[in-house]
């Protein structure tokens, strides 16, 4: 029977993560952020599906309903809220689509599975989705 190399050394103690002290100090890598946001954007698109159907139906039913649709986007504070919801939907779609393309690219290209290329493609995904969202949001809010 062999004796341990360090008999006085205590065994490591494993504990659960404390959400209040450990999570605020944990730095999630870019690939993890993209993965979580991919799920969030999918849920957001699912939750906003009634809004999407309302927009589609109202914009195509008749000239009167299209005028109501335009008024919903133009009327004061309520129009601002509708535009914010539409902006959230724009971000969700763009991020989900670009992150989906990233996943397909990683499945097809075996070189894309390394840690460095995963981090680079994650940062690119975040940047492209945010830049496109800002550009389309500027158009939505009438900045150009």
Walkthrough of the structure:
There is one protein chain. With 144 residues, the chain is mostly helical. It has a single domain, classed as Up-down Bundle (3 helical TM bundles of succinate and fumarate reductases). Helix content is 70%, strand content 0%. It has 5 helices and no strands. Helix 1 crosses helix 5. The longest helix is centred in the middle third of the chain and has 33 residues. It is elongated. The model has no long low-confidence stretch (mean pLDDT 88).
Secondary structure layout:
Blueprint: H1 30-47, H2 49-60, H3 63-74, H4 76-108, H5 115-140
Helix pairs in contact: 1-4, 1-5, 2-3, 3-4, 4-5
Question: Would you kindly provide a brief summary of this structure?
Answer:
This protein has five helices and no strands. The chain has 144 residues and is mostly helical.
